[in-house]
Specification:
Largest sheet: 6 strands, mixed
CATH architecture of one domain: 3-Layer(aba) Sandwich
CATH superfamily of one domain: P-loop containing nucleotide triphosphate hydrolases
Helix content: 25-40%
Shape: elongated
Strand content: 15-25%
CATH topology of one domain: Rossmann fold
Number of helices: 24
Number of strands: 20
Strand order of the largest sheet: 4-5-6-3-7-8
CATH class of one domain: Alpha Beta
Radius of gyration: 28 Å
Structural class: alpha/beta
């Protein structure tokens, strides 16, 4: 039988009987499904590499094929008639002094779509970066490569049309093709005139895909493309990639349901080697169940990626957990130049026990609403782009983790995680918080504050006559101070409230800062350990050498250093492997403060939030109250539905 012939060849290696049985079963399955010696080598190579060198392994696979089929296969001719777009032999990959790949082959067949999988930190994103830059030995110079990363066009202030016209000049693309590409992706005339930076993550990804359409690249690289996309957009992207007839794709993703829909092949990175599997993701999972088990997945306890959130403590004067601590009153927000307001007459409240999910399609205004609530958008009432009022408890500490918080690390890549946290909180106040638009005075506002008689500084605060009041200093009256009630300050020029907010943040920082949580190495190590970052990595590792998941946990840990009462997260599940996602879910369930979340991960929303607000057409509607929802806090469940099985939970998102 075929199995006996295979065993006869394997016997030459003196393998353990259990290993021999396992390999025989896999090889038999591959051969029965038409596999060649190349597939055999890719599959059994990682298992027996310690017993045989590369040349002998190749010869073994050819021999197995010959004895089972009675002749040679095309792979014995070093690739046969395979049409490779990329064929780089014996490549080596290293990053920050760490070897990621030892001599291995990088081979992409034309018009195939490769899903790249492997544990976090093995070098998936680094490999894509090197491919994009052409910094691979033997990489062909005559092919066009386009790299779409998970954080695309974050800081572009130009409109969509201006951006595409710039692409037209740089790439020589026909203007008609540009318009056709945008329309095909779903851009309306109105959205084409929107600033790129104000697009939601989903629409920015669609814009990136539009550039791929118009530039007609040979090799399209995508790093976590489903991040920031709602369910409908993920489905659209999967269907679109399958239609690409003359483009080879290489996709890094933790979304295995997406890879299952899109990929013709799988490239697995493990043990410093690239291993290729034809036949799609399901075929890969069937051939290598051991590899699937080793990939990032949800565990029962999440213990290996534990996250423990700090206790925020009580707020002064807030005796009831149902008393509002943040409130929007008749809020309308209109981006300058936009044809219509993003938010119209919004009224909403948050209390300490709130656990709210903001739902709605991409571009509906979810992120705008969240940024307004946490104070990350300017309140320039004088320009007419904002009306209404945002009220929050003066001691409320807020942690806001944005979709693109990874940018916080760009200036600190050479630092260790400990040094990064120390530098960010050395004064007890979050340096990143001070950069927010809401608190930074414009040059015009600085000039206004310097006008004689105008308020230029906030010195202290106290409750006087039953009302919160602030001690102020006025330009030209430096020797005197003036107490004014908060109601009076709100009626003055908008810059005055920025001064008030800056002072409140300073007090909040000290309330959670130096005397309660000293910014020492010992305290930081303890805090980072609560987010799954080991002492060794925190003290000795450089941020630039951390994996995407580790960087995200570092940003999360830093944002929550101040022991916030409210944690606001915009797409928090992005860049997290499922194990860490499970740990974050459990931590949020136990958190003793308020939670405000935007997420397209249905299982995450179902486990963390008990209240749902639908953001649509500028309005906000409560579609599930806290009483109606299922309270997730202190839930004894330790796992949640996978993305694939839970998509139906949030059909409206």
């Amino acid at each position: 039988s075929t199995s006996d012939l295979i065993r006869k060849e394997l016997a030459k290696l003196s393998l353990d009987q259990q290993v021999e049985d396992y390999i025989t079963k896999i090889v038999t399955c591959v051969l029965e499904e038409g596999g060649k010696s190349r597939q055999l080598k890719n599959i059994i190579g990682p298992i027996i590499e310690e017993f045989v060198n590369d040349e002998d392994l190749t010869n073994l696979c050819h021999a197995i094929y010959r004895v089972s089929h009675g002749g040679n296969d095309d792979d014995e001719n070093d690739g046969g008639d395979l049409d490779y777009l990329v064929d780089c032999r014996g490549i080596i990959l290293a990053y920050a002094g760490k070897q990621l790949l030892k001599p291995t082959n990088l081979q992409f067949e034309r018009n195939h779509r490769y899903g790249v999988v492997g544990n976090n930190g093995v070098g998936k994103t680094t490999l894509l970066n090197r491919i994009a830059s052409g910094e691979i030995n033997g990489f062909p110079q005559n092919i066009k490569v386009l790299y779409i990363q998970h954080e695309v066009y974050v800081d572009l202030e130009c409109t969509v049309m201006e951006f595409m016209e710039r692409q037209q000049k740089e790439e020589g693309t026909d203007a008609t093709a540009i318009m056709a590409g945008l329309v095909a992706i779903g851009f309306t005339d109105e959205r084409m005139q929107s600033p790129v930076a104000e697009l939601s993550g989903g629409w920015r990804m669609k814009l990136a895909i539009a550039t791929a359409v118009t530039q007609k690249c040979d090799l399209l690289l995508l790093d976590e493309p489903t991040n920031h996309l709602d369910v409908a957009s993920v489905q659209w992207l999967a269907e679109y990639l399958v239609t690409l007839a003359s483009t080879t794709c290489c996709i890094v993703s933790h979304d295995y349901a997406f890879l299952r829909k899109t990929c013709t092949d799988v490239m697995h990175i493990a043990n410093l080697q690239l291993t290729f599997f034809g036949g799609g993701f399901d075929h890969f999972a069937k051939l290598r169940p051991d590899v699937m088990e080793a990939l990032p997945t949800v565990t029962e306890s999440g213990a290996t990626a534990v996250i423990n959130l700090p206790d925020p403590g009580k707020l002064d004067g807030v005796k009831s957990r149902t008393k509002p601590v943040l409130e929007l009153k008749s809020l309308t927000f209109h981006y300058p130049g936009a044809p219509r307001p993003t938010l119209v007459n919004v009224n909403s409240k948050l209390c300490i026990m709130s656990r709210v999910a903001l739902l709605g399609p991409n571009g509906a205004g979810k992120t705008t609403l969240l940024r307004q609530m946490v104070g990350d958008l300017a309140l320039d009432q004088g320009t007419g782009n904002h009306s209404g009022e945002i009220c929050k408890h003066h001691n409320l500490r807020v942690a806001y983790i944005a979709q693109h918080s990874m940018h916080h690390l760009e200036e600190h890549l050479r630092q260790t995680p400990v040094a990064y946290v120390q530098d960010r909180f050395v004064t007890g106040q979050d340096k990143e918080l001070s950069k927010r638009q809401m608190y930074a005075l414009t040059p015009e506002e600085v000039t206004l504050s310097e006008k004689r008689g105008n308020i230029c500084e906030i010195l202290s605060r106290a409750v006087r006559g039953g009302e919160l009041s602030y001690e102020t200093r006025r330009t030209g009256y430096e020797k005197d101070t003036f107490w004014e009630a908060i109601g009076s300050l709100k009626r003055k020029d908008p810059y005055v409230m920025k001064l008030v907010l800056n002072y409140d943040e300073k007090i909040q920082a000290f309330a959670s800062g130096m005397e309660v949580r000293p910014c020492t190495e010992k305290e930081i190590l303890r805090h980072l350990a609560d987010f799954g970052i080991s002492h060794r990595l925190a003290q000795s590792g450089r941020i630039k050498g951390m994996s995407g998941g580790q960087k995200c946990r570092l940003v999360l840990a830093a944002a929550i250093w101040t022991k916030p009462h409210l944690i606001a997260l915009d797409e928090p599940t992005n860049y997290l492997d499922n194990e860490t996602l499970n740990a974050l879910t459990l931590a949020l369930q136990k958190f003793k403060g308020a939670i405000l979340v935007i997420s397209h991960h249905p299982g995450f929303v179902a486990e963390v939030c008990n209240e749902k607000w639908l953001v649509e057409d500028g309005t906000v509607t409560v579609v599930q109250t806290a009483k109606e929802g299922k309270l997730a806090r202190n839930d004894s469940r330790s796992s949640m539905p996978s993305t694939g099985s839970a998509e139906s939970l949030l059909d409206d998102d």
